[in-house]
Amino acid sequence: MNKIKNILLSAGIIAFTGLFFTLNISAQSSASEQIQQARCSRITARIDAQIESYNLTKDKYINIYTSVGDAVSIRLDNLENKGVDVALLRTDLQALSSLNAELGSSYDQFIAELTKAKEFGCGTSESEFTQQLQLARQQLLVVKQKALDVKEYIFNTLRPDLKNLKTTI
Prior knowledge:
By secondary structure, the chain is an all-alpha fold. It has one domain: Four Helix Bundle (Hemerythrin (Met), subunit A) (Up-down Bundle). It has helices at 2-81, 87-120, 126-168. Helix 1 packs antiparallel against helix 2 (87-120) and helix 2 (87-120) packs antiparallel against helix 3 (126-168). The longest helix is centred in the N-terminal third of the chain and has 80 residues, at 2-81. It is rod-shaped. Mean pLDDT is 83; it is low at 15-25.
């Protein structure tokens, strides 16, 4: 009888210990899931903030470069009404418009890459997230180069042509 009691007692202790470890493991997995969810929320919020910031920057620069083209176009219309040949500057404005459109599409591609990275940020492979984020960074370098190209075009081509036109009047 004592042996049976000891066996039952041992079985009870083993069952209780197993239940305790099961509860402990499920509590740990629940805590890790909460940590993962919090991490996911932070990543998503940071990427959303970056996307919003880049959208504002995109709008700002596109508007600036468009307004430069509009201001030059108004001046050219006035000069053309006075009989001045402005054909060279018209082609400069078309090139500026083209560069500005390329800048806008590059920004759109960058924001699309960043949005894809946000989708990989939660619950998927970290290597896919990192790879997508790297693609977004590479596209950001393209955006920065295109913005620099527009700025250089304005200062190195459009502005000197306007000054040359002024001296001929």
